[in-house]
Amino acid sequence: MEKEKVTLAKFDVDKYLKEGDAIYAQRGAVEKVADEIVEKGFKNIFFLGIGGTYAEFAPVKYFMDKYSDLDVYLVEAAEINVLRPKKLTKDSVVITASASGDTKEIVEAATWIKAEGIEVVSFTKHESPLGKVSTKIIQADVTTGMCEYSYLLFDLLALRILNKMGYFPKYELFADQMKGIFKNLVAIREQFDPKAEEIAKKYYNEPYNIWVGSGATWGETYLFSMCILEEMQWVRTKSVTSPEFFHGTLELVEPGVPVFLVKGEDECRQLDTRVERFCQRFTNKLVVFDTQEYALDGIDDEFRVIVSPMIATSVLTERLAAHYETYTKHNLNYRRYYRQFEY
Length: 343
Prior knowledge:
By secondary structure, the chain is of the alpha/beta class.
């Protein structure tokens, strides 16, 4: 029987898969940078981000902490510019990213960090302001800003570093299997899309929303609530981790208050389940996004935790966002303040 063709509104599958191939083709370049970092040696690693990039680096730090005992920090660019942490030295490696290459706070941080003789590895464009103040650059020639593109590149760099230092022995197998990740993520989009439309239609006009996540999927939970709902849709949200939920936020849960839970597949899943059980008792508007519900063809189960943020971004930042835009009638690209003037 011929498989029914699913059409995803506001999503070009062919373009996505072509750009996914371009991203995966960067594997060799990423591995070369990772090998050079290890060969040179370092005392610690700082992931430097702001806004969406800060959120995208969160699972990468989680994985490095999970699989190694290296000293790894996740820092916010505007904050590091004023704090100048003493642990950031010439023996450090700074890894940062900016698709535009001109993110003000990141460029400022990279400029003084490089001037102090510290390695700055940037996922950005060579000729951008950030590219010009970086010591190593990884450029991906794609036009669409899909978060999973970033996740894959970041994971390849971080896990290759770990592998070369005696951690994460199955790096080659993981990296080989990632060649098929984007076809999997298309199938996941197709599976989730009807539910995305249903959720957006039901909740787009809620006056207040609570978003909860933890572990490897916390960064994506925060990214969706902040970048998409707040910045792009002007929807009032509260994002909180599953452990922190029980220290403040729980008192705001009552019938009629929507709680959206992103349920992951790592050690923190039990914390997500605790939130789920509580909310089942005290609100009639609980929505659970469980990454475990989605199959990954050709990818071993032991790698699912690494892929879980990619699953989350496919269903949330891509499909759910598209349907919110339809119902709010608020263009995802429109801003009142962000990058509109100096502030």
